[in-house]
Design a protein that fits this description.
Keywords: RNA-binding, tRNA-binding. Helix content is 0%, strand content 38%. By secondary structure, the protein is mainly β. A hairpin with a 6-residue loop joins strand 2 and strand 3.
């Protein structure tokens, strides 16, 4: 199966009370409703407000699964550098919510 990566904007985020490492986020991927996505990023982002407004890439064709008491409908893509710092991968400039991410040199 192919991975489907959609451009989205984090519209809301909050620490999940039942999981120390987890944020519960809502991401606008250009669909009828925002996706609820769990993100294990609390060790890397001190405040949920840092995520709000972020233009991100969402792995969107995963099966929704229960994650600490709520359904998570995707994954936020991140990168980690050689020093262990983890950050969200940002959508390209000019990309719109719902656009499908592609990579030069790879088939769509």
């Amino acid at each position: 199966a192919k991975l489907e990566l959609l451009v989205g904007t984090v519209t809301s985020a909050e620490p999940h009370e039942g999981a120390d490492a987890l944020f519960k986020t809502w991401v606008d991927c250009g669909e009828a409703e925002a996706r609820t996505v769990g993100a294990g990023l609390r060790a890397h982002y001190g405040d949920a407000a840092e995520l709000v407004g972020a233009r991100v890439l969402v792995l969107s064709n995963t099966k929704p699964r229960n994650l600490a008491g709520f359904k998570s409908a995707g994954m936020l893509l991140c990168s980690t550098d050689a020093d262990g710092a983890t950050a969200l991968l940002r959508a390209p400039e000019g990309a719109k919510n719902g656009d499908r991410a592609t990579f030069a040199g790879l088939p769509d």
